[in-house]
Amino acid sequence: MALWTDPCAKCEELLQPYLDRDLSEVEMAEAEKHLEACNYCQRRYRFEESLRGYVRLAAAEPMSAELKQKLVALRTPL
Prior knowledge:
Blueprint: H1 7-19, H2 25-37, H3 39-60, H4 65-74
Helix pairs in contact: 1-2, 1-3, 2-3
């Protein structure tokens, strides 16, 4: 990992692994401590969390047969 002088930059780098719960206990605690104290990073966290929810919702919606056919027609052989 990189060396950080800005705690928000470190939080930014840890945000995705934090949302994935893919950090050590020490890193999780460090990120949570910063998120509790920093309004900017709290907003970034809420945005990323909401975005993930929208992506999950969009991925769960069934695709119409017409759209599937259009996508197949766009596919190019490897």
